[in-house]
Amino acid sequence: LEVIVYAASVIDNAAIQSIIRGTGKIDIVVSAAAICHTVTPPSTIAASEVSEILQTNTVGPFLVISTILHERAIHGWDHEVKVIYVSSALSHTHICHLSAYAASKAAMNLLCVHLNMEWNARGVSIFAIHPGLIHTTLTGKVFPQDSPIWEDGELVLLFFPSYFRNRHFKM
Length: 171
Prior knowledge:
The protein is built from four helices and three strands, in the order H-E-H-E-H-E-H.
């Protein structure tokens, strides 16, 4: 098993194409791009900030997936490909004033569902996951490190248990 890690801006089309074309056949891709706005009520977010968030969190990962699908078609890859998009619990519930971030993750979740429905029978599995609430620089903007939310790893499951019901993904 060989694991190669690449870091690039998902909105840099040339870099994404270069990485994907340079790797040869791809078996698994994990896309974990994310930026977030300041914690603020939805009505106070600047449109330019919403656009930047959607570009990075939705359009960028879609570019990665569509480039993989394009290369697969051109080169006749016939092996199975798995694409994993790292989403967020905020895409399913309201916890704080991060509406543009939540909307960007929710939009990509739905794109993944539709892309998976289209490509799964052809050997490409595309799905969104989220690791639950973990302390990162993004979540640290909302919940301080000493917040009680970090005490119970099961807490996040209370917000979106129905999302994974009736979802079938070929792995």
